[in-house]
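To the structural biology subgroup,

Please find below the input and predicted structure for D14614d7-7edf-49d7-b461-6d902ee31df1, which we are adding to the shared reference set this quarter. The sequence is reproduced verbatim from the submission form. If anyone notices a discrepancy with their own records, reply to this email rather than editing the shared folder directly, so we keep one authoritative version.
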Amino acid sequence: MRSSTATWLAFVLAAGAAANPLLRPRRVPWPDPVPASSIGPIDWSSVHAPIYSPPSSQGSPGKTFSAIKAATSSTPPTVVDWRNRSGLNYITTPQDQGVCDSCWAFAVTALIESMVRVEHGVWSKRSEADVHDGVGAACESVGNAEDTLAWVAGQGAEFISSNSTPPGIADWPCDPYQATEHPYEHCSDRSGRATRIPFYQALGAVDDQKKWLDQYGPLVATFILYSDFDSWKPTAQSDVYKWDGVSQTTGNHLALIVGYDDEKQAWIMKNSWGKSWGENGFVHFAYGNANIDEWTKYGLTNVNPDPWTRRRHQSGSMLQSGNGDTHRNFELLVGNPNATGFTHISRDGTSAKWSKVSTIQSNGLLGQPAIIGTSYNRDFHAVAVNKDQTVQLWAYSQSGMNWSQISTIDGKAIDGFPGLTQGDGSQLIMVVKHADGTLNEWQQRPNSTVWTLSNYPIASNIAQSGPALVQSNVDLDLYNAQGTSRGNLYTVAVRSDGQLQLFWRSGQDTAEWSAGEVFGSGVPLDTPPVMIQDYFGTANETSVGGFQLVVAVNGSVQHWQRANDDISLAPPVEGAQGKWRLAETTGTGVKHVWALVQGSFNQKMHMITEGTDGGVSYWEWDGSWAVVQKLPALDDSSWTTTEPG
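Predicted structure (tokenized):
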């Protein structure tokens, strides 16, 4: 908190506050922190297995996730710092709560978004306002970690007798933070943009807290706020904060513990007073100082990211969903024999077992559908082209657990394989080749089933399109105060001369497409390219990842990469190969590549190919590509059937 008043306001986690955000909380004293002594030692055998595993650039492809319980005898290292674990940063940029007493919302938000990065690899900036305003808090309202985390998890008092979906916490552009008095106003598709969490883990013993920090991730801590903390800076004499013994308290404060340093005898803390405070927004906070170890700390594990977070990191016939015990199932669509529709197959994120979910009948389907997770209640959407040159859109309802056909584009002579994404404006965007050799963009607005041809033609003399459409974060102003900034779109198509070409436009819907770099040669004129934006080497939530592209050439998979470190300052230009490089050529007997995903498994990439024999293979990249499994034919008796979830 940052206030000098002796009397505090506490938000009330009651049904009225959640239902009516304009309701102002009553005046009550600061909620008493939970004594650490009241929390017994953790029974580690009952705690969900730690999901974090250090990434490996040369690991063993095919190694599956193992849900092993945390060891009871492990000794934490001397220093743990999630700003640099195995050379990677897992902590988002320090934020500034401004004049509001909203440290509790900032600490909880920082915990959740950090755990998404720790457990799933992706950056996922969450909205402090979505929590603060969602519970009905005023600018001067104070709170605590346990009630706030319970509210986000849907386990607060107002949810006890309700069947409502847990609120979770939405992304920052869905509800930009404002340090002012204002009503709770969020994006219309918030439900599908909210990361969900389980109930929190309370930790009282310092040894348990250090073990948690080492094996699981950051913790929220509460401490007494003294006035000397306001202007603290590291000095030549000491880079550890300790209360000076004379400064007066102004209440309590909550912040995120991102590690510890036994050599300095200090916790490593991320504050919420901006990057100019302390040591670039962080502080080494002395053990036992200001009651920090007298009060309970709180952690999370097994968070469930939303599809909005994952969308630029997956493309084609497979995606990683939030389904399954560890929220990392793969959902794969495979065309049925004789073009009679497709079958939905799921790979369990813990056991790595594949099973059938359902079969959808549709005559004349060509190739494989492209599937995405959407912000429409986390439902899946899929598009595919038919032999009659129409495009069909299906949706899978997460609540109803069933597929249904939504709309059809007919009479437009579309014969290419589609690329599908959800734009930053929440609309569906599809780029696909038409029979006249043009590449065109189609859009479907939220709450509509009508496709509109827009920004066309992108290009002419195109031989084939594919699931190579990326809604990137290039030129996206994540912290735009109105939440209206849009990232650039990029796609790659096969030209009639057998080369690949990149095309791009700015994120505004009326922007025109520009022709970009040309690379590769000898690409079959009937095979689709597949492209995603990766998160390799990204320093924080605003960093721009590179492009990863795979395509079948001469029976092998060509894996192309483009570093995007300067793509805003030096946009792709037509003609030259630019920054594209051929990273690897692998495999034999490959006819088409249909999917590429960078998921939650130690920064690995995952790929689906179709062989010249018609078989479907699942691949993993962990420094190089390798086939992990050739899936049985759809009519094979070894398949089991399950429901996702």
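Summary notes: Residues 3-29, 58-73 have pLDDT under 50 and may be disordered. The chain has two domains: 80-299, 307-630.

Regards,
Lab coordination
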